[in-house]
Amino acid sequence: MSDSIPASVTAEAIVDPQAPQLVGLMRRRLRLADAFRTPGAIVGIVLSCFFLAVAVLADVIASSDPFGFAGPALSAPSALYPLGTDDLGRDLFSGVVHGIRTSVMVAAGVVMLALPVGLLLGSVAGARGGWIDDLVMRFSEIWQVLPRFFLVLMVIALFGPGLDRVVLVLGLTSWALLARIARAEAMTIRERDFVEAARALGASETRILVRHIVPHGLPAVIVYVALLVAQVMLIEASLGFLGLGDPNAISLGYLAAQAQRFLRIAWWMWFFPGVALIGLVIGLNLLADGLSDRIRSGG
After folding, report:
1. Tell me, what DSSP letter sits at residue 90?
2. pTM, whole model, 2 decimals?
C-alpha cells in the first residue's frame, strides 16, 4: 500500500490549520497497515490475540477443574474429551486452557513490574546524562548479569513455590535491558527539534521527560517487552517441568512433565501442551518482529 493521501485531504491542509495533523495521522495509519501486512506479522497478531483470549476466557472455555477427575485414564482425544485425558483421568483440554492462563498471568505480572521501572530509569538516564546516567547504567549491569532462572530456583528453595515469588523475582530482574533500550531512545529524542522547541517555550525538564521523551521511547521498548514475555513463559514452563511451579496452579510445563512416562502410549499428553507453549512463544516473537519492522519503517 502506498502512502498516497487523497487530494481532498491535502487541499484541506492548505486552509485548515488542523488538517496537517489529519494528514500525518493518515500516513501513520498507512505505514502501520503496511508493517503488519507481512505474513509473519499477521500470524503473530492472530496467535497472540488467540492465546490472550483463551487466557481471559479460561473459566468460560473450560469450566471444569483441571485437577479434578473427568473420566477414564489415558483416553485418546475424542468428542467427549477433545484433547484426551491424562493418567489420572483429568481432562487435558481443561489443563491446557488453564495452563495458558497461568503463563499469561505470570508474564503480565512480570511486565507490570519491569516495564515502568525500566522505562522510567532508562528515560531519566538518557535525558539527563552525566553521573545519573552512569549510576543507572552501572546499577542495571549488576542486574543484567544475574542468572534469572537460577535466582528463581534459589528463591523457591528458600521460600517455597508460588507464582507470586516467580513474578516478583523475574519482574525485579528483567528491567535492566528495558532501561538500556529506553536510555538509547532518550539520548536521540532529547536532541530533536520538538524537544528543543519545548525548552525554548519554557517547559521544565520533568515536563519534557513525561510529555515527550517517555512517550516517544515507549514503542522501541514495547518490542523487547514482547520478547521478554516469551522468555518469561519459557522460564515458568521450565519451573513447572521440574516440579517447582505453584502446586495450586496448572502449568504447561507441569503437563509436559506428567507425560514423560507415557510418551509412547499417550502422545496427546505431551503434544498439546507443547503445541500451546510453542504457539505462545512463536506468536510473541513474530509480533515483536512486526513491531520492529514498524519502527524501522519510520512509524
Report:
1. B
2. 0.81
pLDDT of residue 1: 42
Quickly list H helices, the chain: 7-15, 19-35, 39-56, 58-61, 92-128, 130-144, 148-159, 163-173, 175-189, 193-200, 205-208, 214-241, 252-258, 267-296
Residue with cell 520538538: 194
Instruction: Return the C-alpha cell found at 74.
Output: 489415558
Q: Of 144, 145, 106, 95, which Cα lies nearest the Cα of 237?
A: 106
* SS3 state of residue 69: strand
Q: Tell me the mean pLDDT in the region 106-111.
A: 94
61 CB burial (10 A radius; 0-12, 13-18, 19+): middle
DSSP 211-243: IIIHHHHHHHHHHHHHHHHHHHHHHHHHHHHTT
| Main-chain dihedrals φ then ψ at residue 120, nearest 5 degrees | -70, -50
At residue 32, does pLDDT exceed 60?
no
CA 292 from chain centre, in angstroms, equals 14
Dihedral class, residue 222 (left if φ above 0, else alpha if ψ from -120 to 50, else beta): alpha
Residue 34's Cβ-side half-sphere holds a number of Cα atoms within 13 Å equal to 17
How many of the other CB atoms lie within 10 Å of CB of 188?
13
Judged against a pLDDT cut of 50, whether residue 24 lies above it is answered with no
- Rounded CA-CA distance 49/99 in Å is 16
User: pLDDT tens digits for 220-229?
Assistant: 888 888 889 9
Angle at 87 between CA 81 and CA 89, to 5 degrees: 45
Please give the DSSP secondary-structure letter assigned to residue 84. -
Amino acid, res. 21: Q
Phi, psi dihedrals of residue 85, rounded to the nearest 5° = -125, 165
